[in-house]
Each structure stands twice: as C-alpha cells, then as structure tokens.
TrEMBL record:
UniProt gene name: rsgA
Chain positions recorded as Zn(2+) binding sites: C347, C351, H353, C360
Protein name: Small ribosomal subunit biogenesis GTPase RsgA
Record function comment: One of several proteins that assist in the late maturation steps of the functional core of the 30S ribosomal subunit. Helps release RbfA from mature subunits. May play a role in the assembly of ribosomal proteins into the subunit. Circularly permuted GTPase that catalyzes slow GTP hydrolysis, GTPase activity is stimulated by the 30S ribosomal subunit.
Annotated source species: Promicromonospora aerolata
EC number from the UniProt entry: 3.6.1.-
Domain CP-type G: 122-323
C-alpha cells in the first residue's frame, strides 16, 4: 500500500490492540453526535453545516457531501462553530470532511460544539510540501472533481502546471474539469487538443461582449469580486460551468489572475451569506490563510441573484498553487486510463512507459493501430506521457 493510501482516518478505523478494548465510557457520550460538513477552517475553529432537525435522527445526511455528492443548504441546515475534541488534537480536519459533533450544536451566537470523529474519506487532495511547510498536507476531503482554472491569456497558460494538477486529481481519485477562462482574448483550440485526448472535460468562459450579451441581468462578480466595474462574464459560459458542477463537490484551483474569483462570484454571488463565511469567501484580499472554503452552488443565478436552492459545492483553495507528486506511482496513475492500463500489462517489468522506454507496449499499441484510430491513439499516448513526466519535471 502506498503512502497516499493512508491518512489519519486509517488510524481510527483500523482495529489495533488498544482499539479492540471496548471504550464503554465514550460510546454513550458520543452516541448523540450529529453529523456536520466542514465548510471552513480558521485557527482551530471549524465552520460546520449541520442538518437542522428536531432529533438526531436523519442527521447523517447533513450536507450531502461525498457519496451522492448532493448538497442542500436550503432550509433545514444551520451553521455551527466547533473545535476538535482533545482526542483529535493530532488529527487534521479539513474542508469537505464529514464529522460527528457533540455538545452545543445549536449554532447559536457564541456556541461551540466539539468534533469527536471524522468519517471515512472518499478522496483526499494533497498539496505539496514547500520550504515553509515541510509536511505534505491534505487540502480537501471527499471532493469529486478538480476544476483547473486556466486563463487562455493574461497570464499565458502553462501546460506543465495543468499537467501536474491533472496528475494530482487522478491520483486523488477525482475527475478533472479544465476550465479555460478569458476566451475573449485567445482561442481554446490548442489546449483542447492537448487535454481532450486524455478524457479531460473542457469548458470555456469569456467576458460578455457587451451589455447586450448579459441577458439575465448578468452574472457580474457580485458585491465581493471586484466591486465597482467588476468584469461581467458571458452568462451562457458561466451556466455551462454550472452544469458541470451540479451535484458534485468541486475543488477550484488556479494561479493568481486567471479569473477564479470572477468565476466563483458569478457562480455563487451570495455564497458568503449562505455559509456564514465572510472573509475567506473568494480568496480575495490576500489572506495569509491558505485554507479552503466550501461554498454551496446555487442551482441558478438570475438577475444577479442566486436561487435559494443548492446542488453541489464549490471549494475555493486560496493559496494552493501546486501539488506534490513525488508520491504518485505510475501504476496508480495508469488506473485512470483503462485502455492504456490494459495495454501496459504487456510491458517489461519496471517499464517507465515514457517515450524512451525500451519495448514499451504502448508503442506497439500505436504501431498496431488501425489507420483511422492512429491519430487519436497517438494524441492520447503523447498526452499521457506528458503527464507521466510532469511527476518528476518542474512545471516550467
Ligand atoms: N478579458 C477577460 N478578463 C477576465 C476574465 N475573467 C476575469 N478577468 C480579469 O482577470 C483579472 C483577474 O481576475 P480574478 O478573478 O481576480 O482572478 P483570480 O484568479 O481570482 O486571481 P486572484 O484574485 O489574484 O487570486 C481581473 O482583472 C478580471 O477582471 C475574462 O473572461 N476575460
Ligand atoms: Zn510501458
């Protein structure tokens, strides 16, 4: 089992010598726990969304994150602030985690609940260790999809960076949506050609050509994005993004200036009201905090006002610029590409599958290709090999 398969939750779910002793003292105390979804983390305080029902029954589905991926923060949910119970001091709780909480879960002013358990994670996205932080950390738990926000110009797209994100997502067990912004400035064709062969879904946004294009009253950057004169995105392009996010837990990553805040504010103009998170909502304002924030995704935005029903989560990750890939194993990455994985079974032991690998079966796969499939296969293999090398190369 690779290192990436292990995280804090394993240490609780694994039976151990100590764990097999019945903890009779704690069980009854925690049996009244309710489930919450972590939507924000700030200096030891956790913002949770907890289903607001009379009893504890039915609370297990609060937030709907993970599993079915749905999200409902319409009526029956409340925001609860919590801290970790002492037994979790050394356990990391991140945005997207589903946790069991006890104590004052009223969500009332000044109330503080206690997180006593983290539920098993369906996925864990990690960012790289860097000079200031030697530990590789989990950024977000239970996300379905990584949305790589890349500008087609200003700043120029960097495929090395995109490749690294794709690898990180596939390794985390997430799917990928490549969101190409600023299509009013440059064509998306070239990047499409690089990523569609990998099966990566691509969606394109652009600035509204004129006031006329902003049919529904537009989806400007809300009050938060740019304040006065905030750039207005073409609403059809924003709705196309929304379609790809609906019902899913999506993590948005992107370099400064690519238009991530503009997009998030178009998707969820009033998110800060619904989540109770004010400052970290858009990642604007240059927070020193790099923690992620989960925003409920309105099913639609009309006249600049979001609908009050939600279906999905948008998780913003201010400060997350890169992902550590050193731990990614080739075999594991291959699993994300079923056809290539099957072919590679024929490779010599220890094959790197790179272009210079002797007798790599993936080369035979191209050679043996029917003529009409050859260009598609070649493009796919070339893109795959680019991903493979991004694990070790820099993202220049
Ligand atoms: N031409 C054009 N400009 C855009 C588009 N989307 C955003 N911008 C502009 O690009 C700049 C950066 O947008 P932001 O939304 O602040 O970018 P960001 O990725 O959040 O960057 P940080 O705030 O630094 O994290 C702003 O001046 C936007 O008005 C677009 O579709 N077309
Ligand atoms: Zn090979």
């Amino acid at each position: 089992m690779g290192r990436r398969d292990i995280d804090e939750s394993d240490f609780r779910s694994r039976p151990s010598k100590r764990g097999s002793r019945p903890r009779t003292k704690q069980r009854p105390e925690h049996s009244d726990a309710v489930t919450g979804l972590v939507t924000g983390v700030d200096r030891g305080r956790y913002t949770l969304l907890v289903k607001d029902v009379g009893g504890a029954d039915g609370v297990g589905e609060a937030g709907g994150v993970g599993g079915d991926g749905g999200a409902d923060v319409g009526g029956g949910e409340k925001i609860v602030t919590a801290m970790k119970a002492r037994e979790l001091t050394r356990t990391r709780v991140v945005v997207g985690d589903r946790v069991d909480v006890v104590g004052d879960v009223s969500g009332g002013e000044g109330s503080l609940a206690r997180i006593v358990r983290i539920q098993e994670r369906t996925s864990t996205l990690r960012r790289t260790a860097d000079d200031t932080d030697p530990y590789e950390r989990i950024v977000v738990a239970n996300a379905d999809q990584l949305v790589i926000v890349t500008a087609l110009a200003q700043p120029e797209p960097r495929t090395g960076m995109i490749d690294r994100c794709v690898v990180a997502a596939y390794d985390a067990g997430m799917s990928v949506l490549l969101c190409l912004t600023k299509a009013d400035l440059a064509s998306p064709d070239e990047l499409r050609a690089l990523y569609e062969p990998l099966g990566v879904e691509v969606v394109v946004t652009r600035r509204a050509a004129s006031d006329g294009e902003v049919a529904d009253g537009g989806v400007a950057g809300g009050g938060v994005a740019g304040g006065e004169g905030a750039l207005v995105l073409a609403s059809d392009s924003v709705e196309e993004v929304r379609d790809r996010l609906r019902g899913l837990v999506s993590v948005l990553v992107g370099h400064s200036g690519v238009g991530k805040s503009t997009l998030i504010n178009a998707l969820a103009p009033a998110a800060q009201r619904a989540t109770g998170v004010v400052n970290d909502v858009t990642g604007r304002g240059r927070h020193t905090s790099t923690s992620a924030v989960a925003l409920p995704l309105p099913v639609a935005v009309s006249e600049g006002e979001p609908a009050d029903t939600f279906d999905g989560w948008v998780i913003d990750t201010p400060g997350v610029r890169s992902f550590g890939l050193a731990h990614v194993e080739v075999a594991h990455l291959l699993h994300a590409f079923e056809d290539l994985d099957e072919v590679a079974q024929e490779c010599p032991r220890g094959c790197t599958h790179l272009a210079d690998a002797p007798d790599c079966a993936l080369d035979d796969w191209i050679d043996a290709s029917p003529d009409d499939e050859r260009p598609a296969r070649s493009a796919r293999l070339t893109s795959f090999r680019r991903l493979l090398s991004s694990r070790t190369g820099s993202d220049a």
